[in-house]
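Students often ask what a holo structure prediction actually looks like on paper. The answer is less mysterious than it sounds. You provide the chain, you provide the ligand, and the output is a string of discrete structure tokens encoding the 3D arrangement of the protein together with flavin-adenine dinucleotide.
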Amino acid sequence: MISAEESRALREATRRFVRASTPQSADDHEAAAAADRRTWTGMARRLGLQGVRVPEEFGGTGLDLEAELVVHEEMGGALHGGPFLPVVGQAVPALLTLAGDERARTMLAEITAGTSVVVPADARWYEPDAAPPVLSDGAGGPTISGVVPAVMAGTAADGWLVPADAGGRTALAWVPAGTAGAATEPMTTIDLTRGFAALRLQDAAAVVLARGAAAERARDAMETGAALALAAECVGIAAEALDLTVAYVKVREQFGQVIGAFQGVKHQLADLYVTLESARSALAFAARSVGESPPLRDAALAVARRRCGAAAFRIAGEAIHLHGGIGFTWEHRVHLYYRRAKTNQVLLDSGGGQARTIATNVAALYAG
Amino acid sequence: MTTTSTAGPTLDEIAAEAHAFLAARVPRRAPANLGAGPDDVMGVGLRRGDAELAEVEAAQTWQRDLFAAGLAWIDGPVEYGGRGLTEAHRNRVHAVLREYDVPNTACFMVGHDIVGPAILAHGTEEQRAAYLPGIWRGDIICCQLFSEPGAGSDLASLRTSARRAGDGWVVNGQKVWSSYAHLAQLGELLARTGDPADRHRGITAFLVDMDAPGVDVRPLRQITGAEHFNEVFLDDVAVPDAQRIGEVDGGWPIALTTLTSERSLMGDEHNGLMNDPVRRLYALAESTGADADPVVRELLAEAWEREQIVRETARRSLAAPAEDQSGSVLKLMSTADMEFYVAAATRILGPRLAVDHGTWGTFAWSQLLLGAPAHRIAGGSDEIQKNIIAERVLGLPRDPRPPIPGRSTTTTTQRSRGPA
Ligand SMILES: Cc1cc2nc3c(=O)[nH]c(=O)nc-3n(C[C@H](O)[C@H](O)[C@H](O)COP(=O)(O)OP(=O)(O)OC[C@H]3O[C@@H](n4cnc5c(N)ncnc54)[C@H](O)[C@@H]3O)c2cc1C
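The corresponding structure tokens follow.
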């Protein structure tokens, strides 16, 4: 475990770097939609953030999950739009489960060095019932076909890690960008700070990194990592939206006093603070439970998925509201939190799936 | 304002008349046509620039026909272009209108529901004759020039000034968040004519020609991406005294009429702020198969329940005394309902709410998600409505507030926008 002091130093260094390199307004985000390679390499060279959890033997800093979550939280608070979440939150944990494989180790080293952007494209993650792309083993080597509906940072990638169906077994395929038959199509999204794209694969040549149980382990690591990272982002979003609002109600005057002096406003903000603390606890609980028995681990993760997304959305919505008219403008950045919060929330929990996960696993725990 | 007619058509007759008019011109709307035509849930359009102008032109053409057929202003006095029937007749016609894919007429909302009623209630005979027919025929688009950068909830602190100059007035100041000012020919302005320390007592209402020299309108982009509200700079704008509404320094009661109609508007089931959200939610749940989920069924049940309650409250409010502040009640209900519908759609759509997959009737909910926060802010925020109910209906003491410099009285929500 990293010390409180190390954690604080990591948070501050991340904050300074990410805020300085993240656009502040909706227009700037739209203009900077293309991959920002300078920030990506700078982040690796100056802070080693991509390797926060990569063991030192592969060039990383080898810190723990808690440290990684601090970084995701800061990314959320800054509304950082680069591929950090999918690469570090999703691809790295997946590749770490395959670290016995030379190709996986090379990819980890390149990610850590900031020279490669490896983005997972998991159909199931965005649409739980979506059919995964199909992997076929032909004479000329494996090829992959299918559509992955919405890939976070999909166009910014150097290649995609694609969970696929290989004759009824799971396979994890690597498709480098530029492969014939692989194309991305940017999508209209509510989050203006982060790009999503559909990935269309038509007989694209693929490198198979794992099959069967190993591929499933990698895919699970991808899903767990993404959930934790998104939940941590939500804590960052919520904290920042609340800070922004608290600062505003201390200066905005109506009826001859700052609006923060009205009990109606104070109580709302105190409530939001309690909501934020509940999200922090949910995240800490999930992070602390990753090594526990599967029912407890899965239930704890589901708690974070439910709580953190809901907290961020609620706080960001109230943040708009407490800003009054100015909060409803495109220029003011508060709506960017609302948009990102809602996006993260629906990725974390949809259709009541996480509540069912809790109920099932807790019943198993009690039966246990 | 309602002239009750004894000899006019019955409710069924007026409905049949509206059906005949509409069926000859426009297609039926969902559910008969679900999956075709516009899928917007939010009533306020999202178009900008030329697309918005084309939309406004279509709305004006439509409105002229509706007016000519006597179906535009059902409960308005005949002498100003109305049909002279009751509010019940109006509601019935609006309900029929909602069944057809009529052009989006949101650009007339401020004129029909906010400025028009103020002119009718407080305007001179000349003002009524000059403006009301045009407003209802769609020739005159209106805006409300109330809020200022420093005067939102606390509307009574507004600083835009009107000074006497010869027979008229000269106006200077800045307004903000003025919806449709970029399209408007006529603005209802509140300006300070007395001492700022007099707060609500030193305010006068005027009708401002938006094309007058010195009026500078600058659109502001909203979080939906649309540009519906504006900053309006008023620089030595000459306003004839004939354009004054009501007494000098007597603008506050007029502001209250306006704010009351605005609040009731937001609670009116036919207000055009949303297009049949509940029916669309049911259709969405059915088309996605989510209606098999018991939790979704419970949400659908509550959605319908909420819709009936807000409608019934609107109906009851027609007969309720003003002291009931039913506008505030309706407004709070409807803002909460809108958030509820968004939450229900979120449950049904999941990640499809965040990404546009191009399926009919889905991303429209994402747009409602982005538009919804406005309704809790505009027309007097939730907190202001709660203060009104707490103080004026329940009779609770006012919040302690610091004395306004130069006066010993405290500010009341009655005197604020009470919006304020
Ligand atoms: C989409 C939109 C359209 C609009 N259209 C028009 C228009 O056409 N014409 C026009 O004149 N105005 C218009 N407005 C302005 C609207 O009336 C104001 O935004 C509103 O009155 C709030 O004022 P404000 O923005 O200055 O916020 P503030 O008054 O600064 O309020 C900020 C926050 O503080 C809270 N607050 C303020 N006072 C209190 C209190 N006493 N107790 C508890 N909480 C309090 C508010 O509820 C709000 O959450 C529009 C606004 C929007 C968002």
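Chain A touches chain B through 42 residues (CB under 8 Å).
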